[in-house]
Design brief:
By secondary structure, this protein is of the alpha+beta class. It has a single domain, classed as Roll (SH3 type barrels), CATH 2.30.30.100. It has two helices and five strands, in the order αββββαβ. A five-stranded antiparallel beta sheet has the order 4-3-2-1-5. Strand 2 and strand 3 form a beta hairpin. The longest helix is centred in the first third of the chain and has 10 residues. The two termini are 22 Å apart.
Length: 70
């Protein structure tokens, strides 16, 4: 998967509701439900419960996070 394609996909879905699933160490899984908020050259952010949380495009490419657009 190409990083430019990932950036384009996320930019096309700005201000839409998403669920981001983060696969962490020791089989820990966190889910964040919010709105795709902003994009930057190396990261994107979601807004959930008034908190801005950032993720990198590389995390998506490597499978460390998954994004479900609602």
């Amino acid at each position: 998967m190409n990083i430019d394609l990932v950036k384009q996909k996320i930019e096309n879905n700005l201000n839409k509701k998403v669920i981001v699933t983060v696969y962490g160490l020791r089989n820990k899984i966190n889910r964040y439900e919010g709105i795709l908020y902003k994009t930057y050259p190396n990261i994107f952010t979601i807004l959930y419960d008034g908190i801005e949380k950032s993720f990198s495009y590389n995390d998506y490419i490597t499978g460390d996070i998954k994004i479900k657009i609602l």
